[in-house]
Every structure is written in C-alpha cells, then in structure tokens.
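Researcher: Structure for this, please.
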Amino acid sequence: MEHLKKSFGDHRVLQDINLVVNKGEDLVILGQSGTGKSVLIKCIVGLLDPDEGKLLIFGRNTAELKEKELMEIRKRIGFLFQSSALYDSMTVRDNLEFPLRRQLRSLSQDQMDMLVKEALQNVGLADAIEKTPSELSGGMRKRLGLARTLILKPEIMLYDEPTAGLDPITSKEISALIREVQRTYNTSSIIITHDIECARRTANRIIVIKEGICVAEGSYADLKGSKDPWVRSFFE
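Model: Predicted structure, token format:
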C-alpha cells in the first residue's frame, strides 16, 4: 500500500497509509474504532476502491486490472468476517462444499469430500460435519467460518475481529488456530483486532493506526515499551 487514501464525503478515513505485508507473516492492525482498520481491509479485498494511492497485491496494481483479473486475485485471498457469514439452513458439510461448487466446478464428489474433511480436521471440527451452524457454539462457528475460507487454500488471509464476542478461553483457541493456519498453509495474514491478547499471541508484527495514518510499527514488546503514551495505552 502506497499513500492509500479513502474518504466518505468530507470525512477522510484513510489519510495516508503506507504498508507492506511480507510473505508468511501475521500482521496485526490495532487502532480505535473509526480509525479506518475495516475500511483498509475492505480496500484490500476489493469491497471498496481507494480514492488515491497504489495497492499492489502479488505485485500487481489493482487499479490497472480488469474485473476478470481482479476476480482471479480474489480467489487467492481468504476473508474471515466478524460474523463468520455462515448459511444456517445448510449443514457444516454443505457450508464447506458451497465455495468449492462455486469456484472449482470441475471437482468430483470424492475430491470435495476429501477437501471438506481436511479443512474440518485442520480446525478441529471433524465430528461436526453433519450438524448445522445453529447447533454449534460461537467458537465452533468461528472455526467453521475459517474452515470454509481455508478450503480454497488462500495465500493471503484477512481476519476482521476474529475473537470478537468470544470468551477468553475460546479467544485463546482461535488465536492459536490463526498461528496454526500460518504454519500449515504458509499464509500471509492481516488481523484486525481490539483484543490485545489476540495481538500478543498472533502477531509477528503490529501496526497502530491513528486518524487514518500508521503511527507506530514493531513487535508486541517494542510497542508495549513505546515512548508514545498513546501507543503504550493499548498495551496497559
């Protein structure tokens, strides 16, 4: 991201974002509500277009790509929504088969079965395959949402408040799972969170955004010991 800017009317949300995400790292973005964290992640996934600046994904400038080329890039990006975005009328199996049928239409049923079982095993839900989301706990629903994203084997993972609304024990499990996903799939991940414990457990690097600008960057230990009292306040 080079000099990325985004406004809504007279309100500029992203002032000037310059940011590189390295291959295979878990990058956490911290900031108060309304500082542009979710807007930033929506620009990356293509739900919003930046007003100014340059966004390069896999070395390609998204502003120069045609819709078909953008769709190909989006297939390589996984997005775990805060709500998990599950279909409650479908079983766990059907929820996982849905993206496969939509994007990998040439797969046989045997191939789909194998991918579904692998994805569920990787998030610890192998025994829930015939249940519906309504029969699952909040943490299990989050795991299912992650499994449905991982089934297409994305190279970049975007997490929007992955531990929101979860109890401390389940939050710890989801944070551990994010780390496990990085190791298993060698993903590059951006994690937006207010949960400082999630940040501590998952981050290789942390970026702090204030009023649409990156004001601090470093490891958890670096930022916890920052000389800037506003930055340090996130870690107290």
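Researcher: Any notable elements?
Model: The domain at 2-76+154-235 is CATH 3.40.50.300 (Rossmann fold). The longest strand covers residues 2-8.
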